[in-house]
Design a protein that fits this description.
The longest helix is centred in the first third of the chain and has 15 residues, at about 10-25. The protein is mainly α and about 140 residues long. The protein is about 65% helix and about 5% strand. Strands 1-2 form a two-stranded antiparallel sheet.
Length: about 140
């Protein structure tokens, strides 16, 4: 909804892969960028279907070492590129880093985003979109 009209257009949806690719420093012809775009096109075409391939492809774009886990800088790059409130990204990361190892695994990330989109309890959704959590973290 980059144009604030309340509707996500096909171009706005497709731009997500480009924003994450730029944020991760990948080139247009990088195989992971091509995969992310293709997954986005397929998801748009079948909008009622499971969007996990798109989420996974975007995750993979910023997973610099390909270990199926994101560090805080990688997670921040992804969520910022997707337009999430910057002040809430670290609390979302902490909520997903259940074992405190400084990494968010691909499966945990995808499960949490899927839960958020389907209206279930989700540490990512709650942390990313809760103003109170940011204020509490800032001590305000």
């Amino acid at each position: 909804m980059l144009d604030a009209d309340g509707v996500i257009s096909k171009d706005e949806y497709a731009a997500r892969a480009d924003r994450v690719a730029r944020a991760s420093g990948r080139t247009e012809d990088d195989p992971l960028v091509v995969t992310a775009r293709t997954a986005g096109d397929r998801a748009w075409a079948a909008m009622g279907a499971d969007g996990e391939p798109v989420l996974g492809a975007l995750f993979d774009l910023v997973d610099a070492d390909g270990d199926a886990a994101l560090s805080l800088p990688e997670f921040t790059k992804l969520r910022t590129a997707l337009g999430n409130p910057v002040g809430n990204i670290e609390s979302a990361f902490v909520a997903l880093d259940g074992d405190g190892d400084g990494l968010v695994g691909r499966d945990d990330y995808l499960a949490s985003v899927r839960a958020h989109v389907s209206g279930e309890d989700s540490p990512v959704g709650e942390a990313l979109y809760s103003i109170g959590k940011v204020e509490a973290a800032d001590g305000r």
